[in-house]
Amino acid sequence: MKKIILALLCAVCMIPMEAKTLVAYFSATGTTKAAAERLAKQHDARLWEIEPAEPYTAADLDWRNDKSRSSLEMNDPEERPTIKRCTDVTPYDTIYVGFPIWWGICPRIINSWLDNNLPQLEGKTLIPFATSGSSGIAEAEAYLKKTYPSLRWKKGLLMNH
Ligand SMILES: Cc1cc2nc3c(=O)[nH]c(=O)nc-3n(C[C@H](O)[C@H](O)[C@H](O)COP(=O)(O)O)c2cc1C
Questions:
Q1: Which residue among 32, 51, 57, 63 has the greatest number of ligand 1 atoms within 8 angstroms of its CB, and so is best to mutate?
Q2: Which CATH architecture has domain 17-158?
Q3: Which of 81, 84, 95, 143 is the most buried if burial means most Cβ atoms within 10 Å?
Q4: Which tens digits make up the pLDDT trace of 71-90?
């Protein structure tokens, strides 16, 4: 009997622990993707790419053109680009949420993702991270806290290097 209990205990101990940290990110041109991969490695976390149903073309990303898709989206606070696949956030306690800075804040697709997962994100620790040309992350952090005050936001990370 003792032997059976011991064997069971060992079997239980050998089950690999589920990763409780998720790194979810959107990246239009690969910079935030590379930062997300570094973060996931550091924290032994699962990696999840937030992909738009319709990928962004170079023309869509032209911030000099006020009629480009990104300009139109960023000019409309209610815009919510459709996401390709939904995410199951329920297994995770801590979620890093990554994006490129667009016009000082997060791209609207991050709002789409947060809105889609809102009830399940309540009570979890959320850490924004971003890459940018030169901007800091403070404005994006303030925007996220103001727009989603019920979520538990921790200090953000700018991962340009
Ligand atoms: C539409 C658009 C708006 C941007 N706005 C800013 C900005 O306000 N400040 C900044 O420093 N960089 C800005 N950038 C540059 C990106 O934040 C930067 O290149 C980022 O690292 C790209 O990440 P990605 O390769 O993951 O898409 C902008 C880029 C685009 C396409």
A1: 63
A2: 3-Layer(aba) Sandwich (3.40)
A3: 95
A4: 999 999 999 999 999 999 99
| Domain ranges for the chain | 17-158
Atom of ligand 1 nearest to the CA of 30: 25
Query: 28 in ligand 1 pocket by Cβ < 6 Å?
Result: yes
Say whether pLDDT at 5 is over 70: no
Model pLDDT for residues 99-110, shown as the tens digit of each residue: 999 999 999 999
Structure tokens at 88: 């199951």
Q: Own/partner pairs for 40-45, CB < 8 Å, 24+ apart?
A: 43/94, 43/96, 44/19, 45/19, 45/21, 45/94, 45/96
pTM: 0.91
135 lines ligand 1 (CB under 6 A): yes
Q: Which atom of ligand 1 is nearest to the CA of 101?
A: 17
